[in-house]
Amino acid sequence: MIRPTIGIKTKASDDKNLKVGKSKIGGKPDLPKDFEWPRANNIPMLFCAQYNLSELKRFDKENILPNKGFFHIFLSLDEKWKEFNGVNQEFKFIYSESENLTRTQFPEDLEENQSFNTALIEYFEFYTIPDDENYRFFELNKKYDDLYFYFYQPTEEFITEELYQDSDNMHQILGYDRSIQSSVVYDFASKELGLYGVDSSEYKKRWNDILELSKTFELLLQFDCYDINSDLTKFGGSGTYYFGLSKTDLENKNFNDIKMSFQMT
Fold first, then answer.
1. Which residue from 113, 119, 126, 241 has the fewest beta carbons nearer than 10 Å?
2. pLDDT for 144
3. Which segments does the entry list as coiled coil (predicted)?
4. How many Å apart are CA 171 and CA 225, to the nearest integer?
5. DSSP bridge partners of 31
6. How far is 131 from 129, CA to CA, in rounded Å?
7. Which residues contact 87 (CB under 8 A, 6 or more apart)?
């Protein structure tokens, strides 16, 4: 019920103060020399963050992730509204084993305001419990009376107040999703079934399919746009991105079929 999670703190910084390969939000990405910048409809995607797995491995208590390599996140903008919205939004979540990286200039056709201020990422030990609308909570709640009031609520408050008091954001790696709306494993499942964003009546009709498939997905990473140490909010508002994958792919360290969800208050 309680899972080890990699917490994330951020600190405003500048690329010139960071060594190549440091985990960070924004700035210019550190990429392999032969890397081809991701594009959507022939428009450059926006570089959002990079995560150095060798920096976080001591906090990976279940030894789930590779010991080295990088995650890079690129997101496209809605062409009409010039914002992040998560609806049919193209993205690239890239795992690279290469450690021979170079700080890469932005494409010449990337608009001037389509980059983000640099924020250093620091990792720490954290723990999470399932979202109160997650299927795990539903199953336990059937077995134990008043589970929410005697276990869930006080445990959630303890984790937030005692373990997470130095960081006020929704960033994390692994663990259970801290969703703004309903548990994101349902979003991952509905995307797999082609039901993401469909009419509510169709969603309800297929709910049992979504519920069963959701049990095969895990959260990989949460990325919070409402981070005071960066300016992601200019396109992402108060939203959080959630990236997940199947349990089988996670066990095999296969990051080629990542699902994405975007939730806002």
1. 113
2. 61
3. none
4. 9
5. 102
6. 7
7. 78, 197, 262
Q: What is the pLDDT of residue 63?
A: 96
Token pair 């208590």 is found at 61
**Residues whose CB falls within 8 Å of the CB of residue 30, separated by 6 or more in sequence, listed in order:** 20, 21, 22, 50, 70, 101, 102, 103, 104
Q: Give helix 207-214 / helix 184-192 axis angle, nearest 10°.
A: 110
Classified as helix, coil or strand, 86 is: coil
pLDDT recorded at residue 151: 74
What pLDDT does residue 68 have?
A: 96
CB 57 within 8 A of CB 71: no
- Of 245, 127, 135, nearest to 182 (Cα)? 135
Which CATH superfamily, name and number, covers 3-263?
A: YwqG-like (2.30.320.10)
**Residue with structure tokens 């990542």?**
258
Chain position carrying tokens 């959701």: 214
Virtual torsion, Cα 159, 161, 164, 170, nearest 10 deg: 90
Please tell me the distance from the alpha carbon of residue 131 to that of residue 136, in angstroms, as a whole number. 9
Residue type at 176 in one-letter notation: Y
Long-range contacts made by residues 207-211, C-beta under 8 angstroms, separation at least 24?
A: 210/186, 211/135, 211/186
Is the pTM for the entire model greater than 0.70?
yes
DSSP string, 21-62: T--EESSS-EEETTPPPPEETTEEPEEEEEEEHHHHGGG-TT
Altogether, the residues listed in the chain come to a count of 265
Please tell me what DSSP assigns to residue 115: S
